[in-house]
Amino acid sequence: MSPAAVETESASHDAVPKQRRFGTFDVPDVATKRMEKAGIDLSQGYPEYPAELKTFKDIHNLQPGPIEFSDPGARADREKKALFGAAKEVRHLTYYCGTEIVGLQLKDLTPTQLDELALLVAERNVVFFRDQDLSPQQQRDVTGHFGPIFCQGPHVPGVPEASVIWSQFFASHIRKPTFRTPFQGWHTDIVHLKQNFGITHLHYDTVPPYGGDILWASGYAAYNKLSPSFRDFIDGKMAVMRSGDPYIDENDPGAGPKYVEKIHPIVRVHPATGWKCLYVNGPWVLRILGLEKAESDMCRWHWTPGTSALWDNRCTLHNASWDYENRVTRHGTRVATIAEAPYFDPKAKSMREDLGLED
Ligand SMILES: O=C(O)CCC(=O)C(=O)O
Ligand SMILES: [Fe+2]
């Protein structure tokens, strides 16, 4: 692109994005329209963080017993005929990671197609759908097919299952005065519960014209990058995993917010694919062994308004690029589901063993 073209383009979108004020909140125009169309009352703005903190207070006790979960991908047709047959196009982004489905609206998928989508997300780590007409309620309903919903942080008014992902709002209302998104760096969402996230569905309604991409990396491929002796060494090993944020413990509120720790296997097996994957997290591990050299195991996604990404936190790491530095508006909603407690199975295969690929 010539410098002149860059000038013109940046001049148009560096303009202050249109937004409307609700209480102390300036909600971007596109998001406002999406919410109004969905009958959501924004007159009070988004629920403030201190109120949300209360929902965190019992984080230690949040899962006192097992949460029922059976992976919809495990019962799906391996060939995914219902889903692929209805799609206009199925485009893989890289060899291992990332697939775009063209020509389908998530809100119209049948239970059979959603089962197949769960398997596809498990296999490909992340699946994208552009141009979605999707209210927060529809996002909740579609995603609820994949498992019990767990919401954290500020949410859409009247839709407590849908978190608001909007770093400008976080910056002005949560961590003043400056705030770099907590989503930078390679991570999986939430490692401090007994049963952590499975499929997570992020939908952006308002995005910068450039910048603000998210990268995803395959935990299956990262595992395969390790030498066979190192794989043997880490198979079955456990690690203490620490929460990214401190939380208030309702059993000991006077102690103030504390980091929450859980012990999980560092290699886990995905119940739908049966494949082993590396299960590591940013706050606990500083870098992913082998990841520097593993470009083919990563995919990068540039958002357009109305795009949904569904990724599987069990077998995927992701990293939100901060290159837009909150200078342009980026606003979305996210619905996350809980999956099984991480487990290791010594009899399980790696993806490459199962598919007969070379090391
Ligand atoms: O897009 C972002 O800034 C956040 C992405 C992320 O890490 C998440 O939603 O878990
Ligand atoms: Fe994340």
UniProtKB/TrEMBL annotation:
Keyword Iron (UniProt): yes
Domain TauD/TfdA-like: 89-297
Gene Ontology CC entries for this record: cytoplasm
Alphabetically ordered keywords of this record: Dioxygenase, Iron, Metal-binding, Oxidoreductase
Protein origin, superkingdom: Eukaryota
Molecular function per GO: 2-oxoglutarate-dependent dioxygenase activity; metal ion binding
InterPro entries linked: AtsK-like (IPR051323), TauD-like_sf (IPR042098), TauD/TfdA-like (IPR003819)
Cofactor(s) the protein needs: Fe(2+)
Family: Belongs to the TfdA dioxygenase family.
Name of the protein described by the UniProt record: Alpha-ketoglutarate-dependent sulfonate dioxygenase, putative
